[in-house]
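Appendix B, example 12.
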Amino acid sequence: MRHLLRASLMVLALALVWACNQEPAGVTSQTLEQTGSVEPDRSGRFTPPDLINTEFEFEITIENLTPATGDGASQPFSPLLLTTHTPLFHLFRVGDYASEELAQIAQDAVSGPMVEQLNQSPQVFDVAQGDGVILPGGKSTVRIKAKPGFHKLSAVTMLVNTNDAFAGLDAVRLPRFGTAVYYLKAYDAGSEKNTELAAHIPGPCCGNPFKGIPTHERIKPHKGIKGIGDLDPAVYGWQQPVAKLTIRMVQ
């Protein structure tokens, strides 16, 4: 009986050794050779030692899909803010509260505090920003860098003829080649009451920054302009999605 137990344990040990030396299902030897490394990157993927510090450049183009109607051009966007970062970082999450830095963008298109915060974060690799307002039907292109382990992209821009609406993208994976296209929804930052009153809105329709009524609600999809204040939904309203974002690797 004892001999039988030893034999069984030996068979089990050999089976374990064999299993540990097998390649993962669906991965060829060539793939393992191309992606093998001494240690995994922050995403848990294995990266060749000579690629760990290699930088890649991406071209990000945003197109404003809101209708070109009315004085103040319906819903212009504030300059696009981009960041590349690790999978652990999030610029915003629907259902969470907006950070103070995000609230300043969503309420008054003030991006300086967010840029400073991003530049100080060890989870962020690069920060880039467009240089102008994006009118309905218009486009803006910005370049940003990434590298293995910092391969996620987030973006944010304010719909400026609103109290605290913004369009954004949180932690999407950058394409390894070619292009990727995303359609962005408008979100309510939950940091300012949606009065729709000209006295509380910073955009060209109204010209009153830093005058909103603070609130403390969670980020959620925006319900659009409802006509409860001074803004006419036929002029300043929109349909989802509000923007098209195209990501292209250029280097």
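The chain has one domain: 51-249. The two ends are 66 Å apart (CA to CA).
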